[in-house]
Amino acid sequence: xxxxxxxxxxxxxxxxxxxxxxxxxxxxxxxxxxxxxxxxxxxxxxxxxxxxxxxxxxxxxxxxxxxxxxxxxxxxxxxxxxxxxxxxxxxxxxxxxxxxxxxxxxxxxxxxxxxxxxxxxxxxxxxxxxxxxxxxxxxxxxxxxxxxxxxxxxxxxxxxxxxxxxxxxxxxxxxxxxxxxxxxxxxxxxxxxxxxxxxxxxxxxxxxxxxxxxxxxxxxxxxxxxx
Length: 227
Prior knowledge:
nucleic acid binding; disordered N terminus; RNase H type-1 domain-containing protein; 10 helices; alpha+beta; RNaseH_sf; RNA-DNA hybrid ribonuclease activity
């Protein structure tokens, strides 16, 4: 499954699904954050990631899982901050906002990581092994995510709107989207399109185990039906 610009391309949000940086490949999460020439140049500045670059990984989720299993906690934290910095830079450039240069991304990520670590309360090392804690947090997070979807019809405008909200284990919003679609034939059809978009959104976020919730009984019953 491909995400990001390629998905937007197919629903005619943008006119070109190519990567904004290299202009040669369709952009998905894995390309944007790992395989793009610009991303490669950033990762090559740190030799600690050499052991990953030799692997052929199909999705970004595979990349995260591999690093989680074979990398240290400190390397995982550094990886997460560099990923965020690459994504933030691409996002700013896409909407025309000022951003840092390619050769400044690693320095920016380092500053952000140190800033984050400076405000954290020290944890006693003997309390729990860092690998166990990280694995627990990943599993708990993935099993605790709930996804709510809904749809509304605007017949006077000849369109409908769908919305998706992703909540963590304490009910806080961690991701959301809304989308305008052509007016469907029925409320049930709109709700079905909303749950389809919710599932795609979950895949874009690299979440594999979630609870999907909606208020349309017919759609929910159809999803739960063994037929």
